[in-house]
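Aggregate trends can hide what the representation actually does to any particular protein. This step matters because it turns folding into a mapping between discrete strings. For completeness, the protein is quoted in full, as a sequence line and a line of structure tokens:
=====
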Amino acid sequence: MPNNTPVYPKELSWLSFNERVLQEVEDESVPIIERVRFLGIFSNNLDEFFRVRVADVRRLATFAKGAKRKEHFAELLASINEKVLRLQRRSFAAYTKVLADLDKQHIHLVNESQLSDRQRTFVEDYFHREVLPELEPFFIDDRDTMPLLNEASIYFAIYLQLEDGSERFAAMEIPTETLPRFVVIPPREGKQEKVYIVLDNIIRACLVEVFRYVLPIDKAQAYMFKISRDAELELGEQITQNIVDRVAKSLKKRKQAEPVRMAYDAQMPEVLLSLVKKKLKMGRYDSFTPGGRYHNSKDFMGFPADSARHRYRPLNPLATMPENESVFNLLRTRDQLYYYPYHDFRGITNLLISAALDPQVKEIRINLYRVAKNSRVVAALINAVRNNKKVIAVVELQARFDELANIHWSNELRDAGVNVIYGVPGLKVHCKLISILRKEDGEDRFYSHLGTGNFNESTARVYCDFSLLTSDQELGRDVYNVFEFIQYTHLRPEYQHIAVSPYTNRPALLNAIDREIAAAETGKRAELFFKCNNLVDSEVVERLYRASAAGVQVRIIVRSMCSLLCETPGLSENIRVISLVDKFLEHARVYIFHNGGDEQVWMSSADLMTRNLDHRVEVTFPITNAEHRRMVKKIMELQWSDNEKARVLDAEQSNTRIAQNTDKGCRAQDAIYRYLKRRGSGSG
């Protein structure tokens, strides 16, 4: 593994990605409610960034051996904090502008000082009836320790001035788990408008009431803060039946993990801020992010505006299967390739529903990484058991932030009679496979799914992912053998057509890149065209630099992190990287190789990250149908041609939008839908 490969720090690259999300908040051509939603996504992303990536750097800084390594990580943390503060300032300015633009559309988000008499009466009644019974303040000035704070919550640090001139300090959770964050209040007299107030400001309007019968209060002021904790799970390597118990215990420890970040109202008095910091016992490597009076802007993802004209027009997904045709008859005739959310995800749920009922189906195997809250996928698997099918479900309990949900689903499935497998020791199972075994004419026949995204009906409406459904028997045997490896880890199956992490994905990818390098070095045409969420593996980055030096033309579409130093003389002259942020989340992984004119199109569950190539069970598979290859290439070219939502990733990752050098704009996500619609329903 090359250790001296020049790279852009992945943590700073991730912040550049979140800046692209923030650009959508700032873009006035985006419908106003969608800008509010992107503001929530930006905030939610930043929370997760601190819980995962900053927490990781913080651990490295704490336990690094040697002054140079400690200094390196300390400098990285400083750079992270500097960039976060810049983004926070921009997000506050964007938030202010969004409020002003909401006002222009007669949608008002007011604070406690802007209430009319009629509105104040409503707020005070709502406070006493709904809010006050949920509040549990606690004093913090005379306590030895702060009570355990929930990182999913927001809190008030409260300054109290008593009638005798003395001061007290308190804190209080804002009960957003039991009450809505946004409350509709009456409009002003004679106005046609929609008016909202956040729960925080309802409490602020009535703050003295919280302590009225406890202390003689002259003045009360509240300042919001929240914390982010280290999200790392501490698990042993042994994957046994008690993995459920160990994940559950580890999740409890996560709730007690050390805070790594405190975001707070910059107007909080220094005496109160110092007290809160002291009580939280935060250290030298922790982050403190001053901001405005509102935090947990992630709640804006669910802003309850009901006007369709202020949102993107809903997509009408394309039908995936002809009416009244057996899915198995269809797949025997031709493979199907779907691209969500443009195609209807019911193509997958209908496959499983049909398999559950079909008397010829004997066995269903599936990987579950993240599933929907009311999962039709899980319901179909349970129904298959009722219909005497053998069902094996690989449930990944370590899917970050979905651990509790997956514990729930694993219990539901196990109680229904599904054979639940919890994974592979030391590896996350991240592949997206279904294997259906059907008895036809006295012989076993495979029907298989290979994909880039999860079996989740909810995210399939907004995540762009591919699904290949096939009756190819050699590919079906490969898929079946992956499940055999997961179930019996001592096995090392030979795969004919797929590459599987942690054993063959890396060498397959590097060998394919090397073929392009060899072609370029002999003067032949050589091209790589990749799409992924993250490109941070140093060996892959180094090989791409080598390809550039040999003259290979490299194009990459990356959604999130990119450690490759783009557009750098002597290093990456022949590499161009763009990123797309639009109404749908780009989630697919596609790797295209020119291969001397015999173009290879691969899809994968794996990003170009060390964890995906070496520490997970991932599957990369070929698209062999010529029409499907043309479809994928067309989609990739449309994305590459985007001049409305694409950003160029230069050496500084400054997120410059692609200049429109033509009168004709191209917005890839709209163009892809039109293209697929012209092709007709179904993707055979």
About this structure: Confidence is low (pLDDT under 50) at residues 234-241. The CA atoms of residues 230 and 371 lie 24 Å apart. The chain has 18 helices and 27 strands. Residues 10-235+265-299 form a domain with the polyphosphate kinase like fold (CATH 3.30.1840.10).
